[in-house]
């Protein structure tokens, strides 16, 4: 009986140690992915400032690495806004909403709809964006101003 209890205690100890190791391993992997993600974003931002289209490819790689983070989606949508490619901006905004539904995503998609002349869908997205009570990002005011500027043209 005593041997059985000792074996059980040893098994629990092994399970506890292995579980703790897996948690630590997953934390390290997540941190490495995040570091790589933000490095891609920094490099892509520099490229986009120089109007190098390879920056968008780098941002798309970042979205594949961590699809639930919003920074890369925002930068891709803004790059297409600046280039006047509102169809692709709409496509990226759809992916943004699917992966990270937030006020910024709906404002960006509303902007694309407005530029494409689809006022009903733009209105719908603006209503959804309005339902998000907090300004969850620093770019919200810029996106709201962009929508307003389009409407008063």
Can you describe what's shown?
The protein is mainly alpha-helical. It has 7 helices and no strands. It has helices at 2-49, 54-65, 71-83, 86-99, 103-115, 119-131, 140-151. Helix 2 runs antiparallel to helix 3 (71-83), helix 3 runs parallel beside helix 5 (103-115) and helix 5 runs parallel beside helix 7. It starts with a helix and ends with a helix.
Taking all Cα atoms into account, the compactness measure Rg is 22 Å
SSE topology string: HHHHHHH
- Main β-sheet, in a few words? none
Total strand count, please? Answer: 0
The outline comes out as elongated
The span between the termini is: 85 Å
How many H/I helices? 7
Low-confidence segments: none
Look at the helices and sheets and give the structural class. Answer: mainly alpha
TL;DR of this structure?
It is built from seven helices and no strands. With 153 residues, it is mainly alpha-helical.
Task: Tell me the layout of helices and strands.
Layout: H1 2-49, H2 54-65, H3 71-83, H4 86-99, H5 103-115, H6 119-131, H7 140-151
Helix pairs in contact: 1-2, 2-3, 3-4, 3-5, 4-5, 5-6, 5-7
Structural key phrases:
single chain, about 150 residues, mainly alpha
């Amino acid at each position: 009986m005593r041997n059985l209890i000792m074996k059980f205690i040893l098994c629990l100890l092994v399970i506890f140690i292995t579980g703790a190791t897996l948690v630590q391993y997953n934390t390290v992997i997540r941190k490495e992915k995040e570091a790589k993600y933000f490095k891609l974003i920094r490099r892509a931002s520099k490229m986009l400032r120089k109007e190098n289209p390879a920056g968008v490819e780098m941002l798309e790689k970042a979205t594949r690495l961590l699809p639930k983070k919003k920074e890369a989606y925002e930068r891709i949508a803004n790059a297409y806004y600046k280039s006047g490619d509102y169809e692709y901006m709409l496509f990226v905004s759809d992916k943004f909403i699917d992966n990270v539904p937030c006020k910024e995503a709906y404002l960006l998609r509303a902007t694309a709809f407005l530029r494409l002349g689809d006022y009903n869908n733009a209105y719908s997205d603006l209503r959804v964006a309005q339902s998000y009570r907090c300004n969850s990002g620093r770019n919200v005011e810029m996106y709201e101003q962009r929508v307003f500027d389009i409407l008063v043209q």
